[in-house]
Amino acid sequence: MTEPLVELVGLRKTYDRAVAVDKIDLAIGKGEFVVLLGPSGSGKTTILSMIGGFTEPTEGRVRIGGIDVTAMPPARRPTATVFQDYALFPHMSVSANVGFGLAMRKVRRAERERRAEDMLRLVGLEGFGPRSIHQLSGGQRQRVALARAIAVEPTVLLLDEPLGALDLALRRQMQEELVRIQKRLGTTFVHVTHDQEEAMSVADTVIVMNRGRVEDSGQPARVYLKPATLFSATFMGESNILSGRVTERAGEGVRVETALGVLTAAGQAAPGDRVHLSIRPEQLLLEPAAGEVSLGRARIAEMSFQGTHLRCHARSESGDLELLLRARVDAPVAVGEAIELRAWPADIVLLKD
Ligand code: ADP
Ligand code: MG
Question: Do domains 6-228 and 238-351 have the same CATH topology?
Fold first, then answer.
């Protein structure tokens, strides 16, 4: 990571007895695009809101650029927020919306209008300044909310499910545009989503949240390929989870007895420990290759065409385990037929419970 810009130290928020955020320690690097990923209710908005100053922590500190901002009101923090519902001012023009934060900072009108036009150009809305908000589509409103937030040149931009209201095609397009804008400005983005594909496509660092805690954090590829926990493996994409018991240590790894036989995975655990192994659907191989291990035979129970691949549910002949796999569209598989499943040992991931 580059030098830490945002530091959360022992951050905790409780409501009566409900714990929304449970003692989080996080360091967010300068210029990073960080995504908080987690299911509804996992504490994402509460964290964002404590960074922005809208929610007071029960315990812990928030530092930005080395300065403790825990007691600082939102307007004095070097942050800006794009809210989930955009929170635009319906009675103001697009230009006045974008210039609003600058007006609060006593920037003169001519300068405000010039900067608003710059920001609108950056988000692809050149010339929309005089329009009123109700003349805009959902995607255009989203862009105005983004332009308004970046107009004040925040050090940290906080985005709470900013693309949640957009249709899939527009969401994909805006994901790419957000990354492009973030790289151009060099601003640190902290972006909240429950959509794992969105997280993977925009994040430099993804932080997987569950019940107010951090389950895993790192580069999206690492979190996807080598998830740290069972929750992380199942929330960040789909996975086949094999439960088992460690029989012995083996070099840098362990041997685990599972319903699909004894498998070896890298990592540390003691003989007798109950563990889980994760194998991604696309890592179950249908054809022989050198160095792979057999997982036994399975019968295809359901199959659907997904354009880029066939999505298959199969049932293992040993252990009667339900498995999810992806086959090439031209693979010789059919419902009711048995196949032999294989995997590369390096693709089998040992998970903490
Ligand atoms: P997320 O954004 O991940 O969906 P939130 O941060 O909004 O989750 O909420 C985390 C937990 O805190 C949830 O259980 C939620 O019900 C609770 N919570 C959030 N805000 C409040 C509030 N103002 N009063 C009581 N409980 C709250
Ligand atoms: Mg939320």
Answer: no
Residue 198 CA to residue 326 CA, distance in Å, equals: 21
Q: Which residue puts its alpha carbon closest to atom 13 of ligand 1?
A: 41
Helix axes 168-185, 138-151, angle to 10 degrees: 20
Separation of 283 CA from ligand 2 center, angstroms?
Answer: 33
Residue to mutate, 12, 45, 54, 159, ligand 1, most ligand atoms under 8 Å from C-beta = 45
As a whole number of angstroms, the distance between CA 23 and CA 248 comes to 35
Q: Which fold has domain 6-228?
A: Rossmann fold (3.40.50)
Provide the residue count of the chain.
Answer: 353
Query: What pLDDT, on the 0 to 100 scale, is given for residue 205?
Result: 98
Atom of ligand 1 nearest to the CA of 49: 6
Domain extent listing, the chain: 6-228, 238-351
Round to whole Å and give the CA distance between 251 and 267: 10
- Give 193-232 pLDDT, tens digit per residue: 999 999 999 999 999 999 999 999 999 999 999 999 999 9
Residue 44 alpha carbon to ligand 2 centre in Å? 6
Nearest CA to ligand 1 atom 5: 43
How many angstroms separate the alpha carbon of residue 194 from the centre of ligand 1? 14
238-351: what CATH class? mainly beta
- H or E element: which one contains 208? strand 205-210
Residues with CB under 6 A from ligand 1: 15, 18, 20, 38, 40-46
* C-alpha gyration radius of the chain: 24
pLDDT digits (tens, 9 = 90+) for 225-274: 999 999 999 998 899 999 999 999 998 999 999 999 999 999 999 999 99
